[in-house]
Every structure is written in structure tokens, then in C-alpha cells.
Write a structure and sequence with these properties.
265 residues, three-stranded antiparallel beta sheet, SIR2/SIRT2 'Small Domain', six-stranded parallel beta sheet, binds 2'-O-acetyl adenosine-5-diphosphoribose, Rossmann fold, 12 helices
Amino acid sequence: MSLQRLRDPGMVVFLSGAGISAESGIPTFRGPEGYWTVGAREYHPQELATFHAFSQMPEEVWAWYLYRRSVCQAAQPNAGHSLLADLEQLLGERFLLVTQNVDGLHLRAGNSREKTYEVHGNIDYYRCAVNCCTEHWPLSQGFEDFAKGQKASAEQLAQLRCPRCQAWARPHVLWFDECYDEVTYRYESSRGAARQAVALVSVGTSGVTNLPLQMGRMVAGRGALLVDINPESNPFSQLAQESGGVWLRGKASQGLAQVMQVLKG
Ligand code: OAD
């Protein structure tokens, strides 16, 4: 199958991962810059990004997220993000974006909230830590430029409470010891899209997480077109090649430019 199948009538689902934000300078969980020191102990992100860690040391986990949020806010959307916003304009109702990234750069680049499923949440938002309600709210001002190692002040901590029940609020992100669901993370909607899409374009993901890989397998299993954009081989590029799809070996901005070119004919 060639990229021309992208022009078949039907939904084209784009699935993005941290690689698309790499060109904006946002580090991943896994890089050396991800480590976090509490006292004399270094924590790996997979240990901090958990409900367990939050329940043990909420202020430390908040400090790490507020720092990472500042890194995301200082970053700018790059050409890959802009191309995805342009692709939404070009494809209209045929377009859907499912992102694992919590940095908010797709929305800042111009993708719509309706057509962007943030299946791992968004670091700019918070919600009730005891789930007294399902709403989530944007973090207010007053947390700008939160430095690495900085601790939240008493007045900042006072803002990190659920507006409904005053319990602790938590970052609106999926933690490693938690599960996807529909209400918070659009789990069923994302699977439903993969069941009907004519094509899935994965970009900048290592394929280590459950929902995205399920989506890739569903599309490949139906004989629909799977396109992977990544400089490195990964489960999606392998799945694409095994199912007659396409691996565009390269950066997000390069691969998405090729997709745009095909769709513009
Ligand atoms: P990873 O950091 O696991 O993988 C990033 C992928 O991007 C790798 O396959 C790189 O080869 C690729 N890459 C690097 N630079 C790129 C570029 N310029 N253009 C295109 N691709 C590039 O990130 P994710 O796959 O997104 O989950 O990780 C998925 C999830 O694992 C994250 O959302 C997080 C983590 O656990 C949660 O927080 C729940």
C-alpha cells in the first residue's frame, strides 16, 4: 500500500508521542535530565509519576510537575505541530489527533480541543485527587517559571486544592499505576476511531504504551493503512512494514510534510 491510500474517503487518525515535541526541546521521562532528587534520594520519573508517590509526598510530586510544566510553557510548538494543525484544517471531519503528550503544544499550535484526544492528560490542568467530581481546571497564574528543585509556597499550595471538596488536587495526567478510562482520557473513543479509520499515522512514539499499540494493531489487523514517522525502528514501524504500510524514517516535521504533500495531491 502506498501513501496514496491516505486520500481514500474516511477518517485519518494521527497518533503522536514525545518525539514530536523533541524538536521543541522538551526532554522525555527517560533522559538523564528527568531525574529528581528528594533529600539524598534520586527518583526515576516512573517512580514519581504515580498515584502512590503522590499519596506519600504530594508536595514533592507537585514540585516536579510544576517544574516540568514550566519547561513545557517555555517551549514553542515546532513545524511538526504546525503541520498537524494544518492537516486538521485540510481534512476537516476526516481528521482526529490522539496524543500521549501532556505538554499542550498541539492545542497551542492550533489543533482543536474537539479533535484532540489527550489520552495521557494535560500538564496545564488539575483535578480532584479523591475524584469527588470528574471536572478538571486550568492551573491558575502564579506558578510561572517554577525552577527545578523549587518548592511550592504556602499560598501556592493553598491553590492546589479541589475547588469542590477542598481535598488535595492532583495534576490532570495519567500516572504509571493508573488505568485509561473514557471520561478522563477518551479511551473508548480512541479505540472506536481505530476501528473505523482508513489510516493511522503514528508520529514520534516508541510504542511502549498500551492504548496506542492496541490502536496500531486494530488498524493493521483490518488491512487499513498504517504509517509510522520515526527516525528509529519501533513496534509501529515494524507493524507498518508487516501490514503493507509505510515507515517514513525521519523526523516528525519531515514525515508530516510528506503526508501533507500526498493529501494536497
Ligand atoms: P518515548 O520517549 O518513549 O519515545 C519517543 C519516540 O520519539 C522514540 O521512538 C524516538 O525514536 C522518537 N523521536 C525522537 N526524536 C524524534 C523526532 N524529531 N521526530 C520523530 N520521532 C522522534 O515517548 P512516547 O512514545 O511518547 O506515558 O512515550 C509514551 C509514554 O511513555 C509517555 O506518554 C509517558 C511514558 O511513560 C505517561 O506519562 C502515561
